[in-house]
Amino acid sequence: MKRILMNLKIAVRSLLSFKVRSALAILGVFLGTFSLIVVSNLSGSLAKKTQMEIDKLGKDMLIVRSGVVFRFGRGTRFVGQQANLSYGDVRAIQQGVSQVKAVSPSNSSTLPVRYGGTVLDGVLITGSTPNFTQVRDLTLQEGTFFTERDNKTQSATAVLGDTVAKKLFGEKSPLGKYILVQRFACQVIGVIEKQGSDLSEIDQDSQVYLPLNTYLRRVVNQTYMNTIFVQCENRQALDQAKFEIENILRRRHHIQPGDRDDFTVIDLKDVNELQNQAMDTITTLGRVSALISFLIGGLGILSIMTLIVSERKMEIGIRRAVGSRKRDVGETDTVGDLPRVAHLLARLAPEPDSEHHLEIEFLAPDHLEHV
User: Fold this and answer.
1) Dmax (CA) of the chain
2) CA–CA dist 204, 126 (Å, integer)
């Protein structure tokens, strides 16, 4: 224990003797440790955020979009859309794809929404089926979602996103109130809990949900839809289900081999892998910066140790010349004992008029490695 305390004392004195180098070495080690901690926490946070965004679209989900999907920049952009998915396609997927848990078709477009004197432009109006909340894992804040009967009878009912409800009604309950979607009046029957944005950067809270048949026949006057959400039994079934969906739709849309599909099947697992690749790049860069910081700190400490060894060579040579043992040299206090060594040499030195001379053999620094 005494030897450990003595070594610590020597180390502290040595560090204080080279303040600038010690400060740079400590700073390098600190920055390296700090970078490593920050990168580790950042990677974990990004992974959780990505998983949360994927869960907002639903679990074990395949998304069939009409038209060709292009990705550029952060998120996914749907370009070249054409509403060419039909109820026949939905039934074919339900009956022909194995391990499918639920299928929910939908269509959407941006339209103005008005209540009283408040007008909201560019609100995403989504026509969907009653099982949309189960497939997309949505929770109602208040009220109810529309039923199968509402969809069949094309009832004028609507469910609002959290942001739309607050902008139109403030803190008041919107249930039972009538809003205008473009020029179509519908009654509010529910409000969806706050969701935030999904992977495609669409604000889930700035939406109004209508029954699909109501939206197609009474709002946009269409018979086709642009999205089909397919929920599989488990994650392992996604690849096989995607393959079967593509074959069914190519056959139904009369797409010849070699021709481009007029639809896109999006696997959220692929989107997750792209996000993971980006996070791996960030993690690697952070670890490299941490390694460089550690290297700088290590070089600083190495330079200090080298200087200490250089100073110790002369001291060890003096001590061995006057008869010190190896154990005595190892237990010496580098800084504190130097004055005592000088005093001992002065006492051993002969008087100027003495006929005797004391010969002291100093060990050269090059030979001290064997001491």
Assistant:
1) 129
2) 11
Name residue 340's amino acid: R
Q: Are 112 and 119 a contacting pair, CB within 8 Å?
A: yes
Cα 12 to its chain centre, rounded Å, is: 41
Identify residue 365 by its one-letter amino acid code: P
Q: Report the run of H or E that residue 157 belongs to, with start and end.
A: strand 157-160
Of 90, 91, 94, 70, nearest to 80 by C-alpha is 70
293: left (phi over 0), alpha (psi -120 to 50) or beta: alpha
Length of the chain measured in residues: 371
User: What's the pLDDT at 158?
Assistant: 95
pLDDT of 162 strictly over 90: yes
Mean pLDDT over each residue of the chain, to the nearest integer: 77
Q: Other C-beta atoms within 10 Å of 55: how many?
A: 14
The vertex-91 CA angle with 86 and 92, nearest 5°, equals 95
Rounded Cα–Cα distance for residues 357 and 112 (Å): 110
Q: What is the pLDDT of residues 267-299, one digit of tens each?
A: 866 666 656 666 677 677 767 776 776 677 677
CA distance 164 to 170: 9
Query: Is residue 22 classed exposed, middle or buried when 0-12, 13-18 and 19+ CB atoms within 10 A define those classes?
Result: middle
- Which residues make Cβ contacts (< 8 Å) with residue 80, sequence separation at least 6? 67, 68, 70
The answer to whether the beta carbons of residues 259 and 117 sit under 8 Å apart is no
